[in-house]
Amino acid sequence: MDTLLTADLAANAPNFLRRTSTFVDAIHDLPEKESMAPAQLYSTESGRLFHSGRIVIATVGLPARGKTHTSVALARYLRWLGVKTRIFHLGDYRRAHVGPNGDVPGDYFFVNASTSSVLLRNKILKKCREDIFNFLNHENGQIAIYDAVNPLATGRRALSKEFEKQGVHTLFVESVCTDERIIEENVRSVKISSPDYIGWEPEDAVKDYLKRINARIPHYETMEESELHYVKMMNAGQRVVANNCAFNYLSQRIVFYLLNLHIKSRQTYFVRAGTTKDEDSYKADASLSGEGQDYAHKMADTLLAHRESERQNLINHGAPESTALKPLTIWTSTRRRTVETSEYLASLGYRVRQRSQMSQLHPGVCEKMSEKKIREQYPDEVAKHEQDPYHHRYPRAESYHDLAVRLEPIILELEREQNDLLIIAHESVLRVLYGYLMACSAPAIPSLSFPRDEIIEIIPASYNNQAKRISIPGLPEKLVPGSPEDISMPVPPSEMGSRIGSGAVSPMSGLGTPVLHGSPRRGTQTPEEGEREGGGSLGLPRRQGPTSEPRV
User: Fold this and answer.
1) What biological processes does GO assign it (predicted)?
2) Which stretches of 454-498 are assigned E, i.e. beta strand?
3) d(C-alpha 477, C-alpha 30), whole Å
4) Left if phi > 0, otherwise alpha if psi is -120 to 50, otherwise beta: which for 422?
5) Res. 493: pLDDT tops 70
6) What is the DSSP string of 48-90?
7) b/e burial code for range 513-550 (CB count within 10 A of at least 16 → b)
8) Where does the pLDDT of residue 91 fall: very low under 50, low under 70, confident under 90, or very high at 90 and above?
9) For residues 187-198, average pLDDT
10) Helices of type H across 330-437
11) How far apart are the C-alpha atoms of 76 and 90, rounded to whole Å?
């Protein structure tokens, strides 16, 4: 596996992994420094929010029931809100203990294991618990997610008492599944997402995992302990039971999120809207130009061809000829450009939903202003923007933080959606939604770029999400303008003024530090520019960017 890290990522965000054209999210990377989360409303000296104290969320359930998926999804949402959260996968501790080439004893996963296997399990468990207490007691952690099977009622009661002695609440989240189709889908996803099966043949991975499941089934006890706090999720969110969970605000927020969550696999695609007849105006809400209409057709044809190739790939790997992909639903904002970009797909029978919350950042007084004028008229605002491009807002404009808060209902609906999903939106909206799904830091979000000649596919898995680029062929160069990163030397503000339509520089790009060829990109993008700039990274390495030594 090759790993690529660009200089601007090193400056702005945790490590991101690259696998050819596929990128892995950062949910398991720890922030290098404390900073406000994308949707965080306030901060405290202790680092803990909502007057809710410390909570351990402990998963319960047999293998392949969605425990890890639920753990990772919860961590993604809570971190997005600013709650200091860390996942403790017991399996990671096992893998770390035995080493990359080590194997656990053959009876390690069995209840009637040998004495040596039991001692090994207890040693690994002790290390995991120690790290949980260290995180909560010495690192100002607020929520520790303990991802393990926790199959027995006696063990769960003992776990709750152990944390209660330290003044920590325990909330159990049980994943129950009786639908064999969901179990089979989860088992088969293991070969993709679980570190246990890197390099394994798919069928061998499935057989080994089923063996683990069958070893635990006779000894598993579902949650019925009325004195404990727990949420029971049945068949991927088909039914949810909450018991004794209203012990503080944050616990209720967690339950509300779980009510919107499902663990069924689906794909999400991000694309920008086509170009318009009045490209520089926010207020005009202009219709698509002829080039924009052509883009909408080519984008749709590329996406449908990609989905058909995915279906054929499933058939080639043993699926029946009648295999069908999940239905495709399309979301747009209520702005004319996004709605018209979806019309070709709507004419083919695909369902389109308009979401008013997905409108782009409001540019405020900066609408249609060149960079030269912005610097001349608002020098103080430019200086503030350079210091904090995520939270700063120009007069009468929105910040990216404002947009992230506005998009929370969309994020919850995103978790609830069970069809494959195409999101057609302004680049500013795509940045925030991508930042959520890929666990990007707040400082990284304003510099994410979505070239118009690419569809970004988010591939969900239990352990992390991945992003893949799909190229849209045949677009004219002027629809895919060069990124400011392509500027070979700093451009003085006086020379920038009227080049908006050329694609060389967007109206408010470069408001950060000037960019030198080959140097770290520390400049950021701002409310007005989004739909007029292409090229760049997804908070990820650029396709033609310099490589570095693998860094994990």
Assistant:
1) fructose 2,6-bisphosphate metabolic process; fructose metabolic process
2) 454-459, 466-471
3) 39
4) beta
5) no
6) --TT---EEEEEE--TTSSHHHHHHHHHHHHHHHT--EEEEEH
7) eebeeeebbbbbbbbbbbbbbbbbbbbbbbeebeeeee
8) confident
9) 68
10) 336-341, 343-347, 371-377, 379-387, 400-406, 408-416, 427-437
11) 18
**CA distance from start to end of the chain:** 11
DSSP 509: T
Dmax over Cα atoms in the chain, in whole Å? Answer: 76
The answer to whether 263 and 70 are in contact (CB under 8 A) is: yes
User: Percentage of residues in the chain with pLDDT exceeding 70?
Assistant: 79
CA dihedral 50, 51, 55, 60 (to 10 degrees): -50
pLDDT of residue 184: 76
Report the alpha-carbon distance of residue 447 to residue 538 in Å, rounded.
8
| Token duo for residue 304 | 């449908």
Catalytically annotated residue among 147, 280, 420, 453? 147
Q: Which residue has the higher pLDDT, 320 or 125?
A: 125
DSSP characters over 118-166: HHHHHHHHHHHHHHHHHHHHHS---EEEEES----HHHHHHHHHHHHTT
- Active-site residue, 420 included: no
Residue pLDDT, tens place only, 371-418: 888 889 999 999 999 899 999 999 999 999 999 999 999 999 999 998
Based on its alpha-carbon atoms, the radius of gyration of the chain, rounded to whole angstroms, reads 24
How far apart CA 331 and CA 529 sit, in angstroms, is 22
Which two structure tokens, joined as six digits, stand for 145? 């997610």
- What pTM did the predictor assign? 0.81
Q: Are 532 and 406 in contact (CB under 8 A)?
A: no
Q: Smallest Cα–Cα separation from 151: which of 58, 228, 238? A: 58
Any idea which residue has 């304003």 for tokens?
446
Contact (CB, 8 A) for 242 and 255: yes
- Using DSSP, state whether 378 is helix, strand or coil: coil
CA-closest candidate to residue 281, choices 363, 373, 399, 398: 363
Structure tokens at 174: 């049980």
Instruction: Please answer whether residues 487 and 517 qualify as being in contact, where contact means their C-beta atoms are separated by less than 8 angstroms.
Output: yes
